[in-house]
Design a protein that fits this description.
Bound molecules: S-adenosylmethionine
Strand content: 15-25%
Distance between the termini: 43 Å
Number of domains: 2
Helix content: 40-55%
Largest sheet: 7 strands, mixed
Radius of gyration: 21 Å
Structural class: alpha/beta
CATH architecture of the largest domain: 3-Layer(aba) Sandwich
Order of helices and strands: HHHHHHHHEHEHEHEHEEEEHEE
Number of helices: 13
Number of strands: 10
Length: 317
Amino acid sequence: MTPIQFSSGDVIADRRADYARMLMEAGDAAAAADLMAQALELAPGWAAGWFQLGAFFEKAGLKDEAVKAYRRAAERDEPGLFGAPLKLALLGAEPTPETPPSAYVEGLFDDYADRFETALIEKLNYSVPEKLFRLVRPHAPFALTVDLGCGTGLFGVEVAAASGRLEGFDLSANMLAKAAEKGLYQHLGQADLSAPAESSGLFCANLPKHRADLVSAADVMMYLGSLEGAFSLARDLLKPQGLFAFSVEDAATVEEGVDAKAGFFLQPSLRYAHGEAYVEQSLADAGFTIIDTLKTDIRMDAGKAVFGILFLARLKG
Ligand SMILES: C[S@@+](CC[C@H](N)C(=O)[O-])C[C@H]1O[C@@H](n2cnc3c(N)ncnc32)[C@H](O)[C@@H]1O
């Protein structure tokens, strides 16, 4: 999401913000910040503007100023659309959030949905769905697979033929609309993996607990941080002895990031990486036994390979 796309409600402030962006594009971050600050004098309540100012200050190397601007953005952005708390954590000004604001992740993927598959498959060599399916294939077929964070349905493409019924859940309505176009899922629904079971959207009278034989989450945990909540949702979805397959970005291969509570790390990409020991302990705490893992490259990012760990775990019976 580009915050500058949101209007301030003041025509002159919007025009100044447009010029500020042009200055940024021309490489003059300090001048861009200066002009953006002038725009914000006219529209001091404009959360998107404060967020943009924070980004300009960051580019200009003015960290303290960036922190102040991001704080103002956070104060004015109650739903958390811009993810300012993540920026503040990366700048060392606030603790790392256990989970990013759901509104931020939802907006990110709503905006990304149209370009997602072209970007990931054609440009970024994304391989999690195929590799994760290789891990689960020896245990197929599955009467019911629940695909968490199903996105546009790339894991669905792999697992549909091995599943009697396939359900997909995601935070982003636009990603779900793309998944629906594939015609592979018998049920698609909006759900939030960072919410408690009752309000997650995963359960209702027609969608009871303990219904799934396989729960998958391909390339989703990096948008969650703390994994306890998602693991307990997976446990609530699964039948006894059911399988849980998911991927994380491998913290052991991450060069730069912020250590929250030892175990998960916020990276400059604004995605979280997870430590293997933390994942193992969280799985054990949620009642799972690991039956297979795969350490592998999962996609490219900014010209470099991103490494992940794929886990296959069984719920104790
Ligand atoms: C990188 S995409 C992966 C999509 C799909 N699993 C795949 O492999 O192509 C991550 C997906 O996770 C979803 N997601 C992130 N956080 C979520 C949350 N808290 N609850 C539900 N879905 C979430 C996003 O909306 C997005 O569609």
